[in-house]
Specification:
Blueprint: H1 5-50, H2 61-95, H3 101-120, H4 130-142, H5 159-178, H6 182-187, H7 189-214, H8 220-230, H9 235-244, H10 251-280, H11 285-318, H12 324-344, H13 349-359, H14 372-380, H15 386-401, H16 403-425, H17 435-455, H18 464-470, H19 475-487, H20 493-526
Length: 527
């Protein structure tokens, strides 16, 4: 791409926008960061004051008594300080008119995230998908602390932003489900199943068996958890790439999405089995069978019952109100209820959201009003000739059927970038500065990538490279597996660092490769 005048003007505009944005928000942000640091120091000082000291049993009673008296004085001082601190906060709260500044600060952080997310979309001018820019800008913001810049650190602990990020990935998979079709998905069901099975079994076996070579001296349970972590697939990242490039309806995308759902079930089973082996020392066939049965019953039951109940529920609520708000509310209710049910039985909420999207067809909402623009056009063409009227009606019906997807689009534009930017922010690249750990992580990453690429070989008469690379991202799913292992005490800090680096690389590399492969495939088909 030539560096022409238009590109220079874009860069100037971006720089000016960033400068204006910084001037507007910097005073507030620095104030909040300073407050955050002060509170952190306050807690640390108090902890030091109240930390228990080990007392030698040979000390005299009068020394112990004196020591206890000093502790009582310190505790009284600490209590007074806390009361003063609380009174000061109450005063600030009242002075602010009764509105907590915590919420206002969260509003600011959301604005900051969205601003940088949109700024990162400049990467599309270089032919890369927007999701890659959002991930990279998140990694940059999250690791500025290594340069002594702590301005964005409060985002990492903000529970509201973490919630919005989780809601964002649920909405994304719901949106993907809406744009998918059960009949079309069923056509690739066998191939998706084979890809998922190989994509779980091969990484698990290779990770477990080669673990002693890369990380010698660990327990067998540690190698099992390493293998389990390599089985994960983060469908959100791949789905976003397919969506950005407009290829959701291709056979490759359908195979990857179907395989990712099955992968989640198989990964859940492996995680449960390995966790049971660590905690109980053994695992029963009955437990494994029950986990598998729950997952299958949920997916089959949600699709069958959903198809039966969705039109009836829709018809019942249309008698209350046929407006747009009722239609939108029903759609969101379906998404969130199915996400909850998936989590309730032990699956990821995104699996439930994807299933909810699959079962909702436009025909289920035929009792509701069409979008206003569709109604207006139909009214205008009512007096036209039959030929023109038929053609325009087909076009308008198509837009009416897309109304469900159009409902979700604005919500997706708001929430989904928050998920990908915060995913990048959570990445700690400091782990890459340890050369031995980095070298081991590169070997594990190669194993992780190859395991999924091999799975793509059974995808049938499609571009196997696209399917293989579509299964590569580990994302937040890999981190969840590793965190569980660390909580059980079988994943050491070194192994955890290796897994984090593997997750970083398998999250950032696939969007670049998929972008190249999909565009190459599109050019081949267009010839």
């Amino acid at each position: 791409m030539k560096w022409d005048k238009a590109n220079k003007n874009i860069v100037r505009l971006v720089l000016v926008s960033v400068l204006i944005f910084i001037l507007l928000v910097a005073p507030t942000v620095f104030s909040e960061v300073e407050k955050y640091s002060d509170e952190k120091d306050f807690i640390e000082i108090d902890f030091e004051k109240t930390a228990p000291e080990v007392v030698d049993e040979t000390e005299h009673v009068d020394e112990i008594t004196s020591h206890d008296a000093e502790n009582e004085e310190i505790e009284e001082t600490h209590t007074d300080a806390e009361e003063s601190h609380d009174e000061a906060e109450d005063g600030e709260h009242e002075a602010a008119g009764g509105h907590g500044m915590g919420f206002a600060t969260t509003f600011l952080w959301i604005a900051v995230i969205l601003f940088f997310a949109k700024l990162s979309s400049l990467i599309e001018k270089w032919g890369q998908p927007a999701v890659l820019g959002e991930l990279i800008i998140g990694v940059v913001l999250g690791n500025l602390v290594l340069l002594g810049i702590t301005i964005f650190e409060p985002i990492k602990q903000n529970s509201i932003i973490i919630f919005l990020a989780e809601l964002g990935v649920v909405i994304l998979l719901f949106q993907i489900g809406l744009e998918s079709n059960i009949k079309e998905m069923s056509k690739v069901g066998v191939r998706a199943g084979l890809v998922a099975i190989l994509g779980v079994v091969i990484p698990f076996l290779v990770g477990t068996l080669l673990g002693p070579f890369f990380l010698p001296g660990l327990s067998s349970n540690a190698y099992l958890f390493l293998g389990a972590t390599l089985t994960a697939t983060s469908v959100g990242i791949t789905a976003r790439v397919f969506k950005d490039l407009g290829t959701l309806n291709t056979a490759e995308a359908k195979i990857v999405l179907g395989a990712a759902v099955i992968d989640d079930i198989l990964g859940l089973i492996i995680l449960a089995v390995v966790s049971a082996m660590v905690t109980l020392g053994a695992v029963s066939i009955g437990m494994v069978s029950w986990i598998l049965a729950k997952a299958i019953l949920f997916l089959v039951g949600s699709i069958v019952l959903g198809q039966l109940l969705a039109p009836r529920i829709s018809k019942a609520f249309s008698k209350v109100n046929t407006g747009v708000s009722m239609k939108f509310t029903l759609i969101i209710i379906f998404c969130l209820v199915f996400a909850y049910l998936a989590q309730f039985i032990g699956l990821a909420p995104i699996v439930g959201a994807f299933a909810a999207g699959l079962i909702l067809d436009p025909v289920h909402f035929r009792y509701f009003k069409d979008p206003k623009i569709v109604r207006d056009v139909k009214d205008k063409i009512s007096g036209y000739g039959s030929g023109l009227k038929t053609g325009l009606t087909k076009v308008m019906n198509k837009h009416a059927e897309r109304h469900i997807e159009d409902f979700i689009e604005p919500l997706s534009m708001f929430l989904v970038p928050i998920f990908f930017v915060t995913t990048g922010i959570a990445v700690n690249i400091e782990t890459m500065f340890n050369l031995p750990v980095l070298l081991v992580a590169l070997g594990i990453t190669a194993v992780a990538i190859l395991g999924k690429l091999v799975a793509g070989l059974v995808a049938g008469d499609v571009n196997k490279w696209i399917v293989g690379w579509g299964m590569v991202p580990r994302g937040e799913v890999g981190l969840i597996f590793a965190t569980i292992g660390k909580g059980l005490g079988v994943v050491s800090d070194t192994v955890f660092s290796v897994i984090v680096i593997m997750v970083i690389l398998t999250t950032l590399i696939p969007p670049i490769v998929l972008n190249y492969l999909i565009k190459k495939e599109n050019k081949k088909k267009s010839k």
